[in-house]
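## retry 2 of 3
previous attempt timed out at serialization; input unchanged, resubmitting
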Amino acid sequence: MPRYEFRCRACGDTFEVNRPMAEAGRPATCPQGHPDTVKLLSTVAFTGRGGSGPVGGAPAPGGGGCCGGACGC
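## retry succeeded, writing output
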């Protein structure tokens, strides 16, 4: 289940809420009980095992073009 990060505008507390993606836009109440919160934009990074290429250690596709040449554009 996705985890969403929120910040309370009243006390400044940052907290996380686990909820289904269908409920991602639903407001959250801060643990202190304040209702005025804002959802933060979080980033997620995935890394492969050992290699410097994509997950699985396969080399990155080569070539030119706007997208690296993998799609043949």
